[in-house]
Amino acid sequence: MVTGSAERLKAILLCTLLVGCDRGPAVEAPLPSLSADVDSLPTLERSLIEAPISYDLTPIIAELERAVPKRFGDLTDRRVHPTNSRVRLAFEAERSPFAIALDGGVVRMSATITYAGRAWYKPPIAPEVSASCGTGDQRPRARIELVSPLRVTADWKLRSSTTVRVVEPFEPGERDQCEVTVLKIDVTERVIDAARGMLEKNTRTIDAKVATIDIRSKFDEWWAIVQQPIRLSDSVWLAINPIAVHVDPARGSRKILRTGIALIAEPRIVLGRRPVITPMPLPRQVSATDAPDGFHILFEGVLPYDLASKLLTDELRGKKISKGRQTITVESARMFGVGGNKIALEVDFKGSAQGRIYFVGTPRYDAAGDRLYVPDLDYDVGTAHMLVRSLEWLKHDELRDYLRNKARWPVGGLISKGQEQLVRGLNHELKPGVQLSGDVTNVKIVGVHAGRDAVRVRAHADGAVRLDVRQSRK
Length: 474
Known about the structure:
By secondary structure, this protein is an alpha+beta fold. It folds into two domains: about 25-55 and about 215-474, no CATH class; about 60-210, no CATH class. Helix content is about 25%, strand content about 45%. The strands form six sheets. Strands 2, 3, 4, 5, 6, 7, 8, 9, 10, 11, 16, 17 and 19 form a 13-stranded mixed beta sheet that branches. Strands 1, 21, 22, 23, 24 and 27 form a six-stranded mixed beta sheet that branches. The chain has a four-stranded antiparallel beta sheet with strand order 20-31-30-29. Helix 2 packs across helix 3 (about 190-210). The N and C termini lie far apart (about 105 Å).
């Protein structure tokens, strides 16, 4: 029994010695030193986001209708003829409801006036005589039109400057003339002049009514919305960062007014928790010469280190690298960030030596291959010092160059995923009645940043973005 036990113990010891010889001396290189993770983003041209605000003028039309009298004049109110003191004139007129429509940036108010006239004549020695026109079923008519150009002021108020554009007989000829034939006195001109005077007297009232339209609150609401970050994913946010506003002349059709607003912004992709926003008040407007052209933004394709490590391990596992009579076999690889825009590559191996060593380098973008690579990947300082002291044969160009060649990751999928994420963020309803829509084009990779959490491939995209704010009727 003793002899058998001794034999088994000898076998175990021999096996242990053989395994130990197979594994080789142990190598445990120190971790690479860490440095500050400073991320310097390139400067982009400011962006322009179209943001027209639609405003239904229906509620104000009734106010405009009431601003101008429907009836004026009185057939009993005798007025002295301007060139004949023996003649007295009177008239009464009634207008139809205004037809109000927007023509570009101009409000047009048109109506038809029907009227009647009466004249009195006092001869030098005879009794006074009188006659009338338009007192029957068919009255003379006149056409009137007021025009009111609209503008948005620097302090975000709507202003108009109403003028009387047309006051004239509806049609040429006797149908729309008011001539008192017995006295051969034409009242038409007097009615036209009186109508023009009445309308001109009321232009200020119309402008005052237009000024009561509250568009400032819509602008304030819109400005507050665009300052809020837009969630692209759990830890990725789009911050529009509005800084100024450019306003084009107001435009419209029928009864819908559209203010030509353009938002000037510095959009950014923000990582991590939802950004904390300090609300800014609605700014004053900038001139058209200061407005940028189009939408420009940096977005990212993200390569997480765990994914990069898995892809690299799948590529390297089992690879044998020899120098002379010494051979090692790669077991796994792990990539991580060390700051300073550098990555570290940890390589575990066994064979003539066993253990772990580190390489460091700066990832770059290979446009020809559309991939990330690390052209300067080299032994970390700590690893190099340790190998020089003990296992210098491990520190050779073949291993380094092999890892440089294999440390490559495709980028196309990363960028397309980032672009899709950004486009989704640019196309959704921010709140009822406020719709963001847009697209990005001309995507161009502009840089790579190796952070502590992942490698980020930066792409510059141009495009067009629009924010529509619609007002429902009340």
